[in-house]
Amino acid sequence: EHIPEAKIEDLRTEMHKAVSAEDYERAAQIRDEIRRLEGHP
Question: In whole angstroms, how far apart are CA 32 and each of 2, 25, 37, 39?
Fold first, then answer.
């Protein structure tokens, strides 16, 4: 299954917003989701 690049870009934007808000736990969750979508373990 191919994940649209736009979906991953949206997640990256959300991750940066979480970091800016110092919500590092949320940022880590988003980072893990991006990795999963990109096919990394």
Answer: 17, 11, 9, 11
Sorted by sequence, the CB contacts under 8 Å of residue 7 that are 6+ apart come out as: 37
Domain limits of the chain? 5-37
Nearest partner of 33 among 12, 19, 5, judged by Cα: 12
Tens digits of residue pLDDT in 1-41: 677 899 999 999 999 999 999 999 999 999 999 999 988 76
Instruction: Name the token pair of 32.
Output: 């893990």
Tokens of residue 29, six digits: 């969750």
